[in-house]
């Protein structure tokens, strides 16, 4: 990948990468750090990366960097920054988006990842498998289980009949 292709990839995918990571971490500053590290790692290897594979490589690198960062954060201290909190215990009954975000946050990490990649970012099963280093059938199973969990959670909050 040339310098120009790298810069184009940054322009094209930076927002999507950031949105993907921030939905996982719920922490803007941590997400910015993950994205910065991702672009640094990709730049170090830019000469060996095909331009056509830049998107997949960026998301794969961001995913692994995020997992590593979250593991380090859990070992050292609790998150600092912009955590999402609910002030009113009944507010979830009226705010579907907050309730859905809360439900997604309760998912196991791998289910959360595949759901975000599929339903929020629009990747196909094969692309998700490549990013997460799973096979396609595992991706489908995790997505199915995550959707079942989300469905049950939303039913329990009486938002879905």
From TrEMBL:
Residues 99-150 form the RNA polymerase sigma factor 70 region 4 type domain. Keywords: DNA-binding, Sigma factor, Transcription, Transcription regulation. GO terms for molecular function: DNA binding; sigma factor activity. Residues 11-75 form the RNA polymerase sigma-70 region domain. The keyword Transcription applies. Pfam families: Sigma70_r2 (PF04542), Sigma70_r4_2 (PF08281). InterPro entries: RNA_pol_sigma-70-like (IPR039425), RNA_pol_sigma-70_dom (IPR014284), RNA_pol_sigma70_r2 (IPR007627), RNA_pol_sigma70_r4_t2 (IPR013249), RNA_pol_sigma_r2 (IPR013325), RNA_pol_sigma_r3/r4-like (IPR013324), WH-like_DNA-bd_sf (IPR036388). CDD domains: Sigma70_r4 (cd06171). One of its GO terms (biological process) is DNA-templated transcription initiation. Belongs to the sigma-70 factor family. ECF subfamily. This is RNA polymerase, sigma-24 subunit, ECF subfamily. It comes from Fluviicola taffensis (strain DSM 16823 / NCIMB 13979 / RW262).
């Amino acid at each position: 990948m040339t310098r120009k292709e790298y810069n184009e990839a940054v322009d094209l995918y930076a927002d999507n990468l950031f949105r993907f990571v921030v939905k996982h971490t719920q922490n803007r500053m941590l997400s910015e750090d993950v994205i910065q590290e991702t672009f640094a790692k990709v730049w170090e290897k830019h000469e060996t990366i095909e331009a056509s594979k830049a998107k997949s490589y960026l998301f794969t690198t961001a995913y692994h960097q995020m997992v590593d960062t979250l593991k380090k954060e859990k070992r050292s201290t609790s998150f600092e920054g912009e955590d999402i909190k609910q002030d009113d215990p009944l507010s979830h009954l009226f705010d579907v988006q907050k309730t859905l975000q809360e439900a997604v946050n309760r998912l196991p990490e791998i289910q959360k990842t595949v759901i975000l990649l599929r339903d929020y970012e629009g990747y196909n099963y094969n692309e998700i498998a490549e990013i997460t280093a799973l096979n396609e059938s595992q991706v489908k199973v995790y997505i199915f289980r995550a959707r079942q969990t989300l469905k049950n959670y939303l039913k329990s909050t009486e938002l879905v009949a």
